[in-house]
Amino acid sequence: MKKKKLILVSFDALSCTDLEYVKTLPHFSRIMKEGAYCTHVHSVYPSLTFPSHASIATGCRPSSHGIVNNYVLEPFARIHKWNFYASSLTRRAIWDYAAENGKRVMNMSWPVSAGGKMAYSMPEMSPVKPKVWNLDSFVRQMKVLCKYGTPRFAMRTLLSDRELPKAWFLGKQPNLDMSMMDRFLDAVNRYDFDIAMLHIYGLDDTKHTYGIYSGKCRYYLKEYDRFVGQLMDYARQCSDQNVTLLFTGDHSQKQVSYAIHGNMVLERLGYCTYESKRLTGYRAYLDSGDGMAYIYIKGGDKEQVTARVKEAFAVNRGVSRVMEKQDFENLGCDKEADLVLEARDGYYFESGYEEAADEEGIVNSHYQGVHGYLPDGENYQTMMFAWGEDVAPFQVETMGIIDILPSVCHWLNMKIDPVDGTARTQMWKKRTGGDS
């Protein structure tokens, strides 16, 4: 019986808006003929990278797995900490189920995986700012990856390309994506694994900087297609193994022109205080999730404060919805928030101080593309492509990223806890056995 192997690759910000070009690329288009795919995959709320990847790994929404934003909520921090750590998850992830079933996981740059129990791991994390590349930065980076990954694997991977340590630390694209794809191809050939995971984000960076329809996005899509083809070649060469390839995005993006600095609104209401542009106190605080925002209220008279804050943002030209707990408690975002705001198309939220903001807290955006919005918006879905010996030629009309974990665990015959997602069994041919 053939050994089953899963290769799970996340192309950050791969969107249904990329579909027309993707259909012209040889390897993606081949999967659309021979494999399973879905061009309307819903993200989670907020549709941000770290909550989304935690959802792919756990099959659960953010309110269930505990990662409700990219950053840890720290209103007074100078530098906000990313949600790097697997220990922050309140639900089990794919690497936990794999360990329970005696399977070996290989991880390169998967968010919210630092410290997770895996055979080979170089998690997505780097030392905190300042982002200045020097010997001290290099040493700190190596210490972090060795502490929260598997030291030998992380060091070998990072040092096998002389450009990778700097690109990793600075997030320098396209160098980082190109190097990571090469290192991943080397690793799947070199190491014995059951599940291999990779996250790359050059496309996401490009959409943030140049917009979702920029011709520069096509460079990454073309390179990703080349990489898909190389992994298909790898799978064909493993004739004694049963390899499934699954490629997915995590969220889409929207074009933006304006940023809403919501805490400037709260300052004018008397609910935030600043000294030298630093937050020194608050009764109400806005924590940005880019296309959405949480508002946390503390102290007495919460009902009165909540009502005033709600009234102020309800008439803000950049805000489409102001939601109270009964409105957002089933959306999968942080249930500890007092209010949740959704931005209008063309707008997004910022948490920081902004002197130039108008009376509604609005300034011109320094981004062209942003995500975080409700995942059911028009043309705001991501996509999924699966290919392999056991994958049925099938188009899934619609699904969520929370369906990925139960779907692949169904194929791997790994029992999992009750999750928010549903196994998409139509993706698979009739089971033919294997060591799963």
UniProtKB/TrEMBL annotation:
Native source species? Lacrimispora saccharolytica (strain ATCC 35040 / DSM 2544 / NRCC 2533 / WM1)
The record, for PANTHER family, names: BIS(5'-ADENOSYL)-TRIPHOSPHATASE (PTHR10151:SF120), ECTONUCLEOTIDE PYROPHOSPHATASE/PHOSPHODIESTERASE (PTHR10151)
InterPro entries reported in the protein's UniProt record: Alkaline_phosphatase_core_sf (IPR017850), Phosphodiest/P_Trfase (IPR002591)
GO molecular function, a single term: hydrolase activity
Extract the Gene3D superfamilies matched here: Alkaline Phosphatase, subunit A
Name of the protein this chain belongs to:
Type I phosphodiesterase/nucleotide pyrophosphatase
